[in-house]
Each structure stands twice: as C-alpha cells, then as structure tokens.
Specification:
Layout (H helix, E strand, L loop, with lengths): L3 H12 L6 H8 L6 H11 L2 H12 L5 E3 L7 H4 L7 E6 L9 E5 L6 H13 L6 E4 L5 H11 L3 E5 L15 H9 L3 E4 L11 H12 L2 E4 L7 H11 L3 E4 L7 H11 L3 E2 L3 H7 L16 H10 L6 H8 L3 H13 L3 E3 L5 E3 L1
Parallel strand pairs: 3-4, 3-7, 4-5, 5-6, 7-8, 8-9
Antiparallel strand pairs: 1-2, 2-6, 10-11
Length: 348
C-alpha cells in the first residue's frame, strides 16, 4: 500500500506526462479506464530515471498547502466536471471547498453604474447566510463580488489564473483584497504552484474551476466573446444552472447575459429564487420607500423608468431645473438617487 507521499507524488508524476490529460489521469487512477496504451506510456516514463528524478525534485520543492483530487476534502462538484484539476493549491480556509452553498458570480472587467448598483443590492439580499461567493479576483465584477461578500458577512473563494505567491498573484492591484479575503475566513485557490506567473491560457482554464465549484453561476455582465461567457458555457456544459442579469440591448456589456437568457438561461430578478435553490430560509425585506414630499415621489417614480439629465427631468415634470435642484439634493442625501458619469440622474 502506497504512503500518502507516494500516492500524491505518483499523481503529480502522471500529471507531468505529456499526452495524459487531467481527465484521463483521474479516470485511470479511479479505475474507470484500463487501457494498455496508457499503462505502456506510464511504464516507459517510470523507466526513464532522468524524467522520474526531475519530477520528484520538482514535487519535493512544493512548499505550500494543496489538495489533490484523491483527498476527501476536494470539492465534490468540481470533481464531476469533464476536466477536473488534479491539484488545488490554497491559502486560507479550505473547509469552504466542501460547502454545498457555493455560488459563482462572474462579469466583465468594466464596471458600469447599472451593474454595480444591481450587484450591491443582490449581494446585500444574501447577507448573513451560509452562502459562499466564488469569483475570479479579476478587476471589475469579480473584485466587486468578493468585496461585497466581505461587507455582507459572506464567505468568499477567489480562483486565480496565477500562482498564489504575492509576487505573481494576478492582478497585483488586488493584493490587499486577497489578504482581506484570507483574514476574514475566505480562501484563495489555484491549480498552479505559488510562483507561477499568469499566462493567457491560464484564465480560460481558471474559468472551468469557477463554473465547476457551484451548482449556480450568476452572470452580471459581459460581451458576447469574453471570459465571462466561457465560464457560463462551461457551467451549461456541466449541467449547472445559469442566472443572467438582463440589460439594455444596445450596450455591449449586456449582450452576453441577454444572449444567455435568449438561449434559455434564468433571468436574475432578485435573490429570493437563489436562496430557495439553496434551501436557505431568509425573509427578504421589501424596504418600501416612503415620501413626505409629493415632488420627491414624482422625481423618484419618473427616474425608475430611465436615467435623465436635469433638463430632461424638468421637462417631463413641467418644472424648472432650479425648482428641482433642492429636491434632487435631498434625495441624494437619502441615498436614493445619484448623478452618473453621463451627467444623468439615476436611482440607486
């Protein structure tokens, strides 16, 4: 019977043989396949002393925590994907990986007011539950998802397309966020050793892990050809559920979610359905807004249809811009509306 070290080294050895994919290696070691060609290839490599010694030296240099697909605390849903990672290197709370309540949130690197506002409301509705938010630590929606999870007392898992070492962690601008995730009981994972610098082809590979960790993936934003859509497609291929946020059909970053919805994905309306899917009992507050001032109510109701400039709003309400200014300021103080980068007034 092999020791734990020998078992893990043999898995690492198989992982390094060209021509053996993760899928084939896992099927072989689990006994799902027994092909003579595979056994011959392995035996030939075992007889290659130089190759064995090189791989053993590489394995012995690993000085970070990791799980293998053979370990009992390897994420069960991830094990079921077509090409599961054989190794997961980690920093933080590895127990999160066996949670049944992991929810993946992905989106574009560009943050719009709309996507940011909806994300804040959505994650706030999930606050203080047993859900764990998984995302990719990238700039944009990913970073926002992790930050909002921490703000709302939710656990979070960041899946990286680089090693976990501070000198190579990508993006470097999120080093502090990565540290905050660990400090607050979260987790960083990667299938690459800690000194592995990010490579272009690592990120599509990373996306399959994001999709594989959870039974539901939320798509907030993304162009038709983007990493976000790759993640969504992997989730669909693996029989997982997709919820997509609908948006203006004329805006590029809404085209991805809209196309997913057109193809049969669920429409993301509120957190209520997501909570039901995970059998989490939480009564969502409706937060009905009351107005003592009739003009305040008219302004807010009008802006619920679309953002408007001050001049457009004044025209719709039949008021002068000067008359509206005070009311707009008062609604801003209540955090009900704001002026966006296009100089339009919009609700929060």
């Amino acid at each position: 019977m092999k020791s734990d070290f020998e078992e893990k080294f043999f898995l690492f050895f198989l992982h390094k043989i060209k021509g053996l994919s993760n899928r084939i290696v896992y099927q072989f070691i689990s006994g799902a396949i027994q092909e003579e060609k595979i056994e011959q290839l392995i035996q030939s490599k075992l007889k290659d002393k130089k190759f064995v010694d090189t791989i053993r030296a590489e394995f012995e240099k690993i000085d970070e925590d990791f799980l293998t697909i053979l370990d009992p605390d390897y994420p069960p849903l991830l094990k079921k994907i077509y090409d599961p990672p054989l190794f997961l290197f980690y920093r933080g709370n590895k127990n999160l990986l066996t949670s049944k309540n992991i929810l993946t949130i992905v989106g574009s690197r560009t943050l719009t007011n709309y996507h940011q506002s909806i994300s804040k409301k959505f994650v706030a509705q999930l606050s203080n539950t047993s859900l764990t938010i998984a995302s990719g630590l990238a700039i944009g929606i990913d970073s926002l998802g992790h930050s909002l999870a921490l703000e709302n007392n939710l656990a979070t898992i960041a899946v990286l397309g680089s090693g976990l070492g501070s000198r190579v962690l990508y993006p470097q601008t999120n080093l502090r966020l990565a540290d905050d995730i660990i400090k607050q009981g979260g987790l960083l994972i990667s299938e690459y050793t800690k000194d592995s610098r990010p490579q272009i082809h690592y990120f599509p590979r990373r996306n399959r892990i994001l999709a594989g960790l959870s039974k539901i993936t939320i798509v907030i934003s993304g162009a038709l050809k983007s990493g976000t859509l790759i993640t969504a497609q992997v989730a669909l291929d693996e029989g997982r559920e997709i919820y997509a946020l609908p948006g203006n059909i004329n805006q590029r970053l809404n085209q991805g979610p809209n196309s997913l919805i057109a193809g049969g994905a669920n429409v993301l309306i509120s957190a209520d359905e997501i909570l039901k899917k995970y059998n989490i009992d939480k009564k969502l507050e409706t937060n009905k807004i009351s107005f003592k001032n009739k003009l305040h109510a008219k302004i807010f109701t009008t802006l619920q249809t679309e953002p408007l400039t001050l001049e457009q709003l004044a025209k719709k309400l039949g008021k002068s811009p000067v008359t509206l200014n005070v009311s707009i300021s008062e609604l801003e103080i209540r955090d009900l509306i704001k002026v966006n980068r296009f100089n339009q007034i919009e609700i929060l």
